[in-house]
Design a protein that fits this description.
mainly alpha, globular
């Protein structure tokens, strides 16, 4: 596979560096879900208000297309180097937030830095992955999913050592890694499109028209899957605690889910290069509801093996759809990626609030069942999507 990747122009070192920067950023982004039980207890808020925090964090994703337009003309390495540090500072200060408003400001700021990172990074991966786009996206998404494995363990370890208010000490690690990213990426000329200025560009309206049918199909799948994914990620620690689990078991279960998800993202994109994006999506959207149903009925230690399987296929969806977006030839890659990311983040944020609202009304277990039933509707769209 490595020799084939070299022949196809796969620049392994640069792909790995971009994946590591993704891992750093998303490690800190993953701090919210594990500490939601502490936030609910400290601030006395409802499930819906807790879910709204995730929505607030994702509001800046509405600016993704505009960020994409600007980034198409800029050297993107600075966003990739410094955005993880901004996110790390905001997320590490959550334990010091005296009220809901300050916490919301921190999360909003981290969401904006997340936008500045996630819009250009996949574009750069596409440029350095050569003809192995699926493999490149798998490496990139693997970094993000490993981060979501490390994030809960990191923040819970910090809480155990220093208390929730002492988690600000984690900023120091991000500073060190940012220096290393600067050393590695600063000398490299990383633009979203190096030939942008020399090309006659069509109107933005035409660019959008070309990709609307595809985004509509992807958006439908995201819409019906988002409640299931939000339930199994954002609300998983709260759900397990409501069943009598300890905070550590709940956090470790989330890390286990994310770890298996990292394996799924690493393998799925590469397999989609071989078996086709559409075939891979059909299988993933079909198996996910079955595994979530098994998780809902699982008790005790059976939760862990079911979570392993669930996470593997739950997160395998991401690199396949991301590779599909960047398979389409267009003149504004960061702008199109911004549209895709906006749709992704907005639908996920709304689904998170919906699950919290359903949990307040009927209890989290019923909310999980409803989310799983909704996810079944994604299967017909996976079947109909254009290759």
């Amino acid at each position: 596979m490595i020799q084939q990747a070299k022949r196809d122009g796969f620049q392994g070192l640069r792909v790995i560096v971009l994946s590591l920067s993704h891992m750093l950023h998303d490690t800190y982004s993953a701090f919210l879900a594990p500490v939601l039980p502490l936030i609910i207890e400290n601030l006395g808020i409802s499930y819906a208000m807790a879910g709204l925090l995730s929505v607030i964090q994702r509001i800046p994703s509405l600016f993704n297309p505009f960020v994409g337009l600007a980034i198409d003309r800029l050297p993107v390495k600075y966003f990739i180097i410094f955005s993880p540090l901004v996110t790390a500072v905001c997320m590490s200060l959550m334990g010091l937030a005296p009220n809901y408003g300050i916490l919301a400001i921190l999360l909003f700021t981290s969401g904006f830095s997340s936008t500045l990172f996630h819009v250009p990074a996949p574009v750069m991966v596409r440029r350095v992955a050569g003809n192995r786009n699926g493999m490149g996206m798998s490496f990139y998404m693997f970094g993000g999913e490993m981060a979501r494995t490390l994030g809960p363990l990191t923040i819970l370890g910090a809480v155990s050592l220093w208390g929730f208010a002492g988690s600000w000490r984690l900023i120091g690690f991000a500073i060190v890694v940012t220096v290393l990213l600067w050393i590695e990426l600063h000398p490299v000329d990383l633009h979203a499109r190096n030939d942008f200025k020399n090309e006659s560009m069509p109107r933005i309206r035409e660019d959008v028209k070309q990709i609307i049918p595809f985004l509509a199909m992807i958006g439908a799948m995201f819409f019906f899957r988002s409640s299931m994914k939000s339930a199994l990620t954002i609300f998983l620690p709260i759900f397990l605690k409501s069943r009598g689990a300890t905070l550590w078991f709940a956090g470790a279960s989330l890390s286990l889910l994310q770890f298996s998800g990292a394996a799924g993202t690493f393998i799925a994109g590469t397999l989609s290069d071989k078996f086709g994006r559409r075939n891979t999506l059909i299988f993933i959207t079909s198996i996910n509801p079955v595994l979530m149903a098994l998780f809902i009925i699982a008790k005790g230690m059976w939760v862990l093996p079911v979570l392993l399987l669930t996470g593997f296929f739950l997160f395998a969806f991401g690199p396949v759809t991301l590779a599909m977006v960047h398979d389409i030839p267009h003149n504004r890659p960061a702008f199109i990626n911004g549209l895709y990311m906006t749709m992704n983040f907005v639908l996920s944020a709304l689904a998170t609030f919906l699950v919290g609202w359903l949990g307040d009304l009927f209890g989290l277990e019923t909310a999980y069942i409803i989310a799983n039933v909704i996810a079944l509707a994604a299967i017909p769209f996976a079947i109909r999507i254009n290759r």
